[in-house]
Design goal:
One of its GO terms (cellular component) is plasma membrane. It contains 17 helices and no strands. It has helices at 2-37, 41-51, 53-57, 62-79, 86-90, 93-117, 122-133, 137-146, 153-181, 186-196, 200-210, 212-242, 247-252, 257-271, 276-300, 303-307, 311-334.
């Protein structure tokens, strides 16, 4: 019996290897180009991956690419929790935390208003609203893992990742100039950068381009938004379980293993002082998993299918981004959070 199981496992591993090797190679190429040109690695992984779509459509790579787009994706999201500790989040204070919770809720809610006006469905509204509100590409991938899938889920996920990554890059350059022109202090600029830019890397880049104090504030604010991810995922799972889309998927999604891993790492980092080198290594592994998963999603998606989504998709993401930006600036003027 054991020998048979080992043989089955070996055969499955052999079938997975070509696809995993392809996704890993694309991710490595994206990492090299990203570091060489200072551009978003995930965007390179998407674009390069789509060039190899023909290898997923036919050939031995399908199973391994599918594994990378699902299991490795969830592993990368789960490992994100190592960067967060409750003591870091406490530095925001009660008022700052409430403002950020309100901004996240408002942004997600705006998606459900904007998307139907542009002819898009609730799945896309949740996917884009969560990505803009929380942590960009990572949030999009995590939300896509728990909502009921249809024939457009992967295409919409890929588009959302591409859109929020591109907008984050633009915001990294434009937002510090905008906030300075509006007369905000360095600490206020750091709060706004952390509260409005989608991806963590661009938040760090924009924050420290203002000053060290702004960069530290931006990082803490962004970590709080990242910490909202499991809260939003649990809320989504509960709503889906109670609604018409409940079913088996909704019940399983109540506490998927990668969410448990995320919360466990947050709790561990809060009660035990983890070595900085270990945190850096796990963070690097998490990012590597996400880049490999993005590469796999790119391989699974044809460019023709992606271009068929229309301008309405981009308009939804841009409008949600503007809602978050305007609401954050207004909140900082109204509430004394910094």
């Amino acid at each position: 019996m054991i020998a048979q199981r080992l043989e089955v496992w070996r055969n499955a591993t052999v079938r997975m290897l070509p696809g995993l090797a392809l996704a890993g190679t694309v991710a490595a190429a994206a990492g090299f180009l990203g570091s060489h040109y200072g551009a978003p690695v995930m965007l390179f992984a998407l674009l390069i991956g789509m060039a190899f779509n023909f290898l997923h459509a036919e050939g031995p790579c399908r199973e391994g690419v599918d594994l990378a787009a699902k299991f490795i994706l969830r592993l990368g999201v789960g490992l994100l929790g190592v960067r967060i500790a409750f003591e870091d989040l406490a530095r925001l204070g009660g008022d700052g935390a409430l403002v950020l919770v309100g901004l996240v809720a408002l942004t997600i809610a705006s998606g459900f208003v904007i998307a139907p006006l542009l002819g898009r469905q609730w799945r896309f509204a949740l996917l884009t609203g969560g990505a803009v509100a929380i942590c960009g590409a990572s949030a999009a991938l995590a939300i896509a893992a728990v909502i009921p899938a249809n024939d457009r889920t992967e295409r919409n996920t890929l588009f959302t990742v591409m859109a929020v990554t591109a907008l984050s890059t633009v915001a990294m350059v434009a937002y510090p100039l905008l906030f300075q022109a509006l007369g905000f202090s360095e600490i206020q600029q750091g709060f706004l950068i952390g509260a409005t830019i989608h991806d963590v890397a661009q938040v760090v880049g924009a924050g420290f381009s203002v000053s060290d104090a702004a960069g530290e504030t931006a990082t803490v604010v962004k970590l709080f938004r990242v910490a909202m991810l499991p809260v939003v995922l649990i809320a989504v799972a509960l709503v889906l379980r109670m609604g018409p889309h409940g079913g088996a998927r909704g019940r399983i999604a109540l506490l998927p293993w990668f969410m448990v891993l995320f919360l466990a790492l947050v709790a561990l980092g809060s009660v035990v002082h983890l070595p900085e080198a270990l945190v850096d290594q796990v963070t690097t592994l998490s990012r590597a998993c996400l880049v490999v998963a993005i590469a796999a999603l790119g391989i699974k998606t044809s460019l023709k299918a992606l271009t068929a989504v229309g301008g309405g998709h981009l308009a939804v993401v841009v409008l949600e981004t503007l809602v978050l930006l305007a609401a954050a600036c207004l909140a900082l003027e109204v509430f004394d959070v910094i």
